[in-house]
Amino acid sequence: MSGHDSKYFSTTKKGEIPELKEELNSQYKDKRKDAVKKVIAAMTVGKDVSSLFTDVVNCMQTENLELKKLVYLYLINYAKSQPDLAILAVNTFVKDSQDPNPLIRALAVRTMGCIRVDKITEYLCDPLQRCLKDDDPYVRKTAAICVAKLYDINAELVEDRGFLEALKDLISDNNPMVVANAVAALAEIQDSSTRPIFEITSHTLSKLLTALNECTEWGQVFILDSLSRYKAADAREAENIVERVTPRLQHANCAVVLSAVKIILLQMELITSTDVVRNLCKKMAPPLVTLLSAEPEIQYVALRNINLIVQKRPTILAHEIKVFFCKYNDPIYVKMEKLEIMIKLASDRNIDQVLLEFKEYATEVDVDFVRKAVRAIGRCAIKLERAAERCISVLLELIKIKVNYVVQEAIIVIKDIFRRYPNTYESIIATLCESLDTLDEPEAKASMIWIIGEYAERIDNADELLESFLETFPEEPALVQLQLLTATGKLFLEKPTEGPQQMIQAVLNNATVETDNPDLRDRAYIYWRLLSTDPEAAKDVVLAEKPVISDDSNQLDSSLLDDLLANISTLSSVYHKPPEAFVSRVKTAPRADDEEFADTAETGYSESPSQGVDGASPSSSAGTSSNVPVKQPAAPAAPAPMPDLLGDLMGMDNSIVPVDEPTAPSGPPLPVLLPSTTGQGLQISAQLVRRDGQIFYDISFDNGTQTVLDGFMIQFNKNTFGLAAGGALQVSPLQPGTSARTLLPMVAFQNLSPGAPSSLLQVAVKNNQQPVWYFNDKIPMHAFFGEDGKMERTSFLEAWKSLPDDNEFSKEFPSSVVSSIDATVEHLAASNVFFIAKRKNSNKDVLYMSAKIPRGIPFLIELTAAVGVPGVKCAVKTPNKEMVALFFEAMESLLK
Amino acid sequence: MISQFFVLSQRGDHIVFRDYRGEVPKGSAEIFFRKVKFWNDDEAEEAPPVFNVDGVNYIHVKVAGLFFVVTTMVNVSPSLLLELLQRIARVTKDYLGVLNEDSLRKNFILVYELLDEVIDFGYPQTTSTEVLKSYIFNEPIMVDAGRLPPLGPAAMFMQGTKRMPGTAVTKSVVATEPGGKKREEIFVDIIERISVTFSSSGYILTSEIDGTIQMKSYLTGNPEIRLALNEDLSIGRTASSSYDYRSSSGGGAVILDDCNFHESVHLDSFDIDRTLHLIPPDGEFAVMNYRITQEFKPPFRVTALIEEAGPSRAEVLLKIRADFSANVTANTIVVQMPVPSYTMRASFELEAGAVGQTTDFKEGSRRIEWNLKKIVGGSEHTLRAKLTFSQESHGNLTKEAGPVNMNFTIPMYNTSKLQVRYLQIAKKSKTYNPYRWVRYVTQANSYVARL
């Protein structure tokens, strides 16, 4: 071949397409090849060359592999838009799949699998069957991946033709590449189904461990990641697995190392010998540190993972803090992560070294980094009581440099230090006050004002200091205004003299009359009322003792941490979010596989695994694709609180939320939350529902006004479950007298409200024509019951025993009636409360069930009732006592 | 798994784009580019290599000024994707000789052919140039490498010294030479990147060596190779020495904290005689990576002083001393020092008879820069700078200036004393005597002196 490929990009004087057409039909091979290259070149720059389809396909029958590959590349791109013509290629494909050359056989199956056209797919099955048993490993490994492709297009076909079994057979293949691809394909298929398809037994385990030593680095990652789902039976088996996996820590590929670390960490949970655990920790440290010598991008991933690992097992890297010191040339995203880990590893022993580093960072150039370094010093002070004084002296040193943003950041953290160690370090207030005039960031100002107010009695000129802020009170941001209000209040209570009285008068006046911020106004009114009626009570309220804070600002809660640790070396461990929070792929519906319950379950769910046809256009509506799975509803005997499953499935093509379907007029009427009398004619009814593993806000609007309403928007206040809208509210303009109903996808754990759990959900809805409407809803906890809440009988018993007795609660539901055990079981299963066992106790039936809410919080349930007699006793055991009240609320509503 | 792979130029043009799954909405490359370009609306900020926009996960690395990107919709291993991107860049470079926008565009058909073998349905298959050779049929079209700096650590051999065959590192592994016959040769590069932090009093706070033994083989027939390292090499600091290893060192033995190996390396006799056996696959790869925190002698001593010289003036004195033997020469030395933000002007005074030295005051990033073409071992160089401020200083000059950062390359010098004792190639015949290049180089990674 001569010349440059780029010459194919040059255009000609004649019409391009006709000229190419001519060349494609040339009698000379070389000319045809050149022409195809030109076509591909045009294709890659986005020109439409689909009109040449027939001519290009004609070049397909060639012995020349180079040319064949080019034609295939073209076919993959255009077959979708020309499905009728694509069929022309089928014969050649089928012929190629039997070619003596293994490369051509593999190429044919690989390409057919990429063409998502039904007619081609039909013809794929036979060649695929042959290729899965081909003599050549290159063909087999290509065929293995092709099964996953086919499953994505048509899952039913894969199951019917027995490809899953063939794939499982390949796990025993003698070629490690084939094993690795088979594992990858099975893992993917398993991911899109909740039925157990790929379960690792002790037999497959040993095969995989053997293949691990021989396959490519990428294959090793596939295998290790599948192994991480295996639960070892006992400590011995766990040790065994770890022993086989440990050599992977020496691999030059960081992905292999991290996947191995994941398995070792998981299996360590089962290992009881402290010696073994200590030894493993020692072995893991050097490879983890070595990850920090890789490219910065990999370092970033490693650091995010190490951040999780040190929270769980701080000993692993306790002596390695130096390796997390920032390098001069680290990218900013690496530096930020290193700081975070340094804080986590800081201890009384190394704090001097750490402070020296932080001090150095605090004088660097990058503003964000400097701020974070200053904050880090404060966090160390809060974390390490014995080092607090040293930290403060470093902060004071930094304040003296008088770099504005350093001073402000320092004041913010010093406020936290004061909260942590009350009445200990006030001597430095004088120094802080020197910088008063330079503060221009709201948070720093607010912090300084808080400090002045808190120590008003000990600062001689506190009134003067506060007064200097009061001049600009109306222009300050809300954060500062609130602090000013409280600080002036404190000042007045501490020094009830004339000056402070005038100040508080002025502030209260301003805050009640001239502001439109409801928070500020409310607080001002409360103070006012308190001060005018009962100054002693005001003292108790305003000067109340505050709880001591601790440094948990970046600490994850333990169940989330465990969840993330099980996801080490995945995106989830980089984002520090559970996979559900960012992966939108939906699994096929769960199948009840409990034997006692199998009969009813079988009729409840149809066989067809749910997977949309069209991966390319996920937002296309379901009605147009032919292979949309039709799932039968679980036929609830009692009227279920959920609308029927069929209706909502139609809107759920390929897991994407139906944003383009504004209405979903199905299901029973929703509870009215905003009556039309309150909403000036607009009535809003809504309810939280769970469908296919996702939570939606089923909301309906009735326009009883005389005008068209549009521009609907919705917002949720902070709540116990951190529920928030997962997308925009899709409501088309609403004509007078009409109504619209939509499913708003919700995300959980976004913006958690602190305090005791509550089912209160505060909602605000606005539109372009009316004022904002606020209303309250209740969060039914059963919307959070996960599809994964089913427990095995043995693990239920173990869990029950392992929980202390004071974690058990019970409650009577006097008005609930169980009319038939089966119907109740089925009804509860539809809401993800899973039946485990039952027994008779005199005339009563006792049912044992389990449910689970996100972050792995299980509920172990015992229901006692006599059939047909009102009154159900519900007992529950759960590690999370706070949630019990909400749980009973949910059960009572489910049993109504 | 991987949904799409693409390569974008610095301006955001598509150079290569391949969709493996058709599940990511259109326009992902544009979304990616906009996000990276305007991360946080602040140019000082840099986008992290992994982020999520509207449910699509973008994972990228920057190689040779190009963005190599993959997208995915599922919760996969990001380190796998990052490694893969680096490897794709390396394989492409093996094939094309040079990796840049021009060579990728000229060879786009070959690149697509490669991508189809490297990734199938989003799953990485193989990234071994050796294995790929049997499935790839397009021949690379060479671009003129002359004006283009080559990629990777081997690039440093191109500068200064004449001992290296200049074209070798930009030669395609698969293409036949214009002369017809391939030259039999193998390159083994011991590359050490060192990080040192000096305290203001000149005491070493942290020091670390990140080393790589890199190999690039152009040998036909893939003969077996034995690579012997220092016999007294030991691996792993003992627990007791983790804090006071400084005092225990000095015996001369090289102690590695940790190391890892390429999968082609057999370690059967490594524990006995520190010899690595391997059949090198074609293409460039790291035989071994290692990490050392054992004390070593830093090649340069750096001292920096800043002093007030009048109400709004200061004087800076920078001094570097080359602590290595006179037959070694360091090149492309850059010394940088941030100065107080209110610095208006800087005037420099080089030592008498200075050759090949330049100075600069970068106003935008408010730092002074001192470039030296080369430094011969044993020599010492100083620079004086006078700073003029727009205001009076706060009397905290040492906090507002510095730290001093230094960049350099020292060919034929290795800091750790890790040596390749011999490189043996299994002989095919008596006349078979390929060229062997064993090259050492030390580079600054983060070489910092605090004020």
Mean pLDDT across the residues of chain A is: 83
Count of spatially separate domains of chain B: 3
The total of beta strands of chain B comes to: 26
CATH topology (level 3) name of the domain at 5-230 in chain A: Leucine-rich Repeat Variant
How would you name the CATH homologous superfamily of the domain at 5-230 in chain A? Leucine-rich Repeat Variant
| Relative helix content of chain A | 40-55%
What gyration radius of chain B follows from the Cα positions, in whole Å? 25 Å
Taken as a percent bin, the fraction of beta residues of chain B is 35-45%
Main β-sheet of chain B: number of strands, strand sense, barrel status? Answer: 9 strands, mixed
Q: Let me know the largest β-sheet of chain A.
A: 5 strands, antiparallel
What does the oligomeric state look like here? heterodimer
Over all CA atoms, what is the radius of gyration of chain A? 33 Å
Determine the CATH topology of the largest domain in chain B. Immunoglobulin-like
In CATH, the architecture of the largest domain in chain B is: Sandwich
What order do the strands of the largest sheet of chain B run in, or round the barrel if closed? 13-16-9-8-26-24-19-22-21
- Helix-residue proportion of chain B: 10-25%
Count of extended strands of chain A = 13
Q: Briefly note the structural class of the backbone of chain B.
A: mainly beta
Keywords (chain A): Cytoplasmic vesicle, Golgi apparatus, Membrane, Protein transport, Transport
Domain Beta-adaptin appendage C-terminal subdomain (chain A): 785-896
Pfam family, one (chain A): Adaptin_N
Region (Disordered) (chain A): 597-655
